[in-house]
């Protein structure tokens, strides 16, 4: 049985509203995802597109926007493909005050429901495990 989700969290030395801006504004999104370009229509059903020279175009669809505490999107596994059931995972960011900073948590789920054999489901999950550590570190560096 494939583990369905990846959970990562960190404390960012900035207020919740500032972290929200870094998570949801295209200029910042491109930086923390290491993309050459990012576009985001920040509303449920809105398009979220990231472009990398070496990976191609990643397509996602905004799922939920509850400023400043929750942002989620569904993204496709393969470059250039629209997200759809069996070919997407759900990424959810939650933000909460923690002392003088913000507790930032990301959960990516849906690996066990991908239209892939179990070994391929696990492969997709494993390649993102360290990726989310890197992304959260990149988000946090926007405040140092």
TrEMBL record:
Residues 14-138 form the Activator of Hsp90 ATPase homologue 1/2-like C-terminal domain. It comes from the Bacteria. SUPFAM superfamilies: Bet v1-like. Belongs to the AHA1 family. It comes from Pseudonocardia charpentierae. This is SRPBCC domain-containing protein. InterPro entries: ASHA1/2-like_C (IPR013538), START-like_dom_sf (IPR023393).
């Amino acid at each position: 049985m494939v583990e369905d989700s990846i959970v990562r969290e960190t404390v960012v030395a900035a207020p919740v509203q500032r972290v929200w801006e870094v998570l949801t504004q295209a200029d910042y999104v491109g930086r923390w995802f290491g993309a050459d370009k990012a576009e985001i229509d920040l509303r449920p059903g809105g398009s979220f597109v990231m472009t990398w020279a070496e990976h191609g175009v990643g397509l996602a669809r905004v799922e939920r926007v509850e400023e400043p505490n929750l942002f989620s999107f569904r993204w496709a596994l393969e470059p250039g493909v629209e997200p759809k059931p069996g070919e997407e995972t759900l990424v959810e960011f939650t933000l909460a005050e923690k002392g003088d900073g913000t507790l930032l948590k990301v959960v990516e789920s849906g690996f066990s429901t991908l239209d892939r054999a179990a070994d391929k489901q696990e492969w997709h999950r494993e390649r993102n495990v360290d990726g989310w550590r890197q992304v959260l570190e990149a988000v946090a560096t926007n405040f140092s």
